[in-house]
Every structure is written in structure tokens, then in C-alpha cells.
Amino acid sequence: MHDPGASGLKTLTIILGAGVSGLSTALALLKRGHTVTLLDRGAAGGESSWAGGGILSPLLPWEYAGAVSSLALRSMAGYADWVAEIEAISGRDAEFWRCGMLALDVHSPDQALAWCAAHGMVAKQGAPQTISLPSSGSNQNPVWLPEVAQVRNPRLVAALRAAVVQLGGTIHEQCPATGVLTQGGRVTAVQTAAEAFPADKVVLATGAWSGLGLAGLAATPHIRPIRGQMLLFKLDPGVLDTILYRNGLYLIPRRDGHVLVGSTLEDAGFDKTTDAATRRRLHLEAAELLPVLGDVQPVQHWAGLRPGSPGNIPVIDRHPDFENVFVNTGHYRYGVTLAPASAELLVDLMEGATPALDPMPYRWEVALERRWSATL
């Protein structure tokens, strides 16, 4: 590392990727006095950070590995304060809303409730009286999670971007990295088509593209794009005021009456196209949960590419090839959910501090040993 005092310059970190993981890392670094520049191949937050639903919890948290739960629970505990600080710095509203989530057809609800009790997560069996469920279809074994919150992804990204800039960070959009310059086991600069950006440290937060690597940098192991298609409806405000989840389908209300419906899990490479059959299926399944949706057409249909990883476990670690390169990627379905704790963990590792969470499950060498299951 360069000595900031010797040169009169602050230590400069270059972050590749300005999605929620990159922006969150930038925010944490800036708050600790680092100088940060972000490079993004497209628009800041324009990929999965924008495309997702913003539920601030694993969909059925008791079904995930402890490595996911540890990051999720730490993020969830501090999310309201984290968003409030971002909003105060940026002057933008991320639409944080503790709207709760009702999960239907929960397998082994007693085990789910026991898990929640053991992990400090409020859960109740049964649906609140304020929620009217359709009589048709299967709505067995409801579990109510009243403290689950959400953010509106595009607005969180806009607030994060503005906060990073307000704190002195620099963001270069439409600026894909093409390679790195190295010397003595360190990366000294990140190369783009237009120029080389000198770097004291580098963070790779390239999302679904992490599995491709970069000239001079090995790819993050077992990361691949997983497509998710979403629908957006517009209803009157208040028609739905909590998240509904059943058998892989979720409905997410916004305060202004919009309702998001998602999402598919498709191993389709880097193809973000949508199809009419999926649109019809999502619409039909959503209308089974919320019948009023059967009488309206979606106002938007899009697809995003998640940074898929085996078990949804991200890689948050130093890169094995270079002492000053770090990785924060592979959050799969929960990049927004896990953003605060992931950034905290990575910056602690970068600064040599003792992290609040055990870093071992997120190590590069552990990720090398994980394997994808036969089903997504």
C-alpha cells in the first residue's frame, strides 16, 4: 500500500461495478476516509440492482445456509438506520417500508417458527385479519413475518449513487474495464479503452459478470448469470399493503399502488429477453393470490441477470492472485438484502480489522469447493 503521508495523497480504491454491492462498498470506504472511484460497464445500478424487488429478507429465511442467514440478519438489523443515513446524505427517498411478509403453503411451519425464534426474527402462525386471502387455491400453513421490510430498488440505487458522489466518490459510467496493470504481486492500475486508472486497491463487484474474469485477473469461481423475469402492475394505493409469497412467487406492493410480481429462475446466459408465455404464467399465478390482478394488464415486463452462486453464498474476500485486489460478488437473489453487512465485512478485511462476522464461509478457497445443484 502506498503511504498516504509520504505522497500527500489518500489511498485510492478503484471499484469495478457500480451496482448495489459496489456502491455499498464505496460508501463504507468513503466513510472511513478512503478515496474511491467506481467504473461501470453500463449505468450505475442498471443491472440486477435495478431489476429486483427489494425484499429485505431471504424469501423463506429458514431454508438457507447459515452463511446466508448471518449476513442477512446482520443487514436486516441495521437496514433502517443504513437507509436513513443514505437518505440524509443524498436527499433522496429509497422508500424503505416495513410492510411485513405473509408466506403461504409453508412446509413444516413449526420448524420455520422455531428457526425464527432461535434467530430473533418475529414470526407468527396464521394470517393477520387485515389480509384477505382468496378462497380458491392453496393457502395452507401461513407464516406471518411482520418485521420484514422492503426498499424500492431503483430509488435505493439512486440514493446510494448520490450519497457516494456527495461524499467525494467518482463514478465513471459506460466505462468497462479491459484489464489490469501489475507489478510485484500487486495491481497498479485498471485499464479501460480510454485510459488507465491508477489504484492502490481494487474491488471487484461485477455481479453476474464476475464469472467471466478480466484480462490479468482470474474469474470468481462458480458465479454465473441467472435470469429473472418480473411484471409490474398499477393498482390503487392500499389494495395490497404487505408482501405475499407462495411457492416461489412473490407480490410486492409499493406505497403508490404499484405491485411487482416475480420471479423466474432461468439459466439463460447473458440473455435478458422476456417471453409471452412467462408473462401469462406469472400473471395467472399472481391473480390466484390477488384476484384483482386478473382484471388488469401489467404495465411493464422486464428481466434482470442475478449474480448466481451455489447456495446463494457470496464471495467476499481478497483475490488469491494479488494482495491488493478484493472481491464482493455472487449474492445471487439477495444483493440488496445483504449489501450493508457485505460491505462492512469486505472493508474490515481490506483494512485488516477483525470483522463482526466469521469471514470463512465467504472465502475464495471455500467458494472453489462449492458446486451448483441440479436444480436452480
List the helices and strands and how they pair.
Blueprint: H1 4-7, E1 12-16, H2 20-31, E2 35-39, H3 48-51, H4 66-90, E3 101-104, H5 109-118, E4 124-125, E5 143-145, H6 153-166, E6 170-172, E7 177-183, E8 186-192, E9 196-198, E10 201-204, E11 224-234, E12 243-246, E13 249-253, E14 258-262, H7 276-289, E15 300-308, E16 315-318, E17 325-329, H8 335-351, H9 364-369
Parallel strand pairs: 1-2, 1-10, 2-6, 3-12, 10-17
Antiparallel strand pairs: 3-5, 4-5, 7-8, 8-9, 11-14, 11-15, 12-13, 13-14, 16-17
Helix pairs in contact: 2-6, 2-8, 4-6, 4-8
List keywords for this structure.
globular; 6-stranded mixed β-sheet; alpha/beta; 376 residues; 28% helix; D-Amino Acid Oxidase, Chain A, domain 2; 2 domains; 23% strand; FAD/NAD(P)-binding domain; 8-stranded mixed β-sheet
Distance between the termini: 41 Å
Task: Please give the order of strands in the largest beta sheet.
Answer: 4-5-3-12-13-14-11-15
- Proportion of beta-strand residues: 15-25%
CATH class of the largest domain: Alpha Beta
Query: What number is the mean pLDDT?
Result: 95
* Overall tally of structural domains: 2
Write down how many β-strands occur, each being a DSSP E stretch of 2 or more residues: 17
> From the 3D coordinates, which CATH architecture of the largest domain would you assign?
3-Layer(bba) Sandwich
Element order: H for helix, E for strand: HEHEHHEHEEHEEEEEEEEEHEEEHH
- Multimer state: single chain
* Total number of helices: 9
Within CATH, the superfamily of the largest domain carries the name FAD/NAD(P)-binding domain
> Which range best describes the helical content: under 10%, 10-25%, 25-40%, 40-55%, 55-70% or over 70%?
25-40%
Quickly give the structural class: alpha/beta
Return Rg in Å.
Answer: 21 Å
The major beta sheet can be summarized as:
8 strands, mixed
Contiguous low-pLDDT stretches (5 residues minimum) are 1-9
CATH fold group of the largest domain = FAD/NAD(P)-binding domain
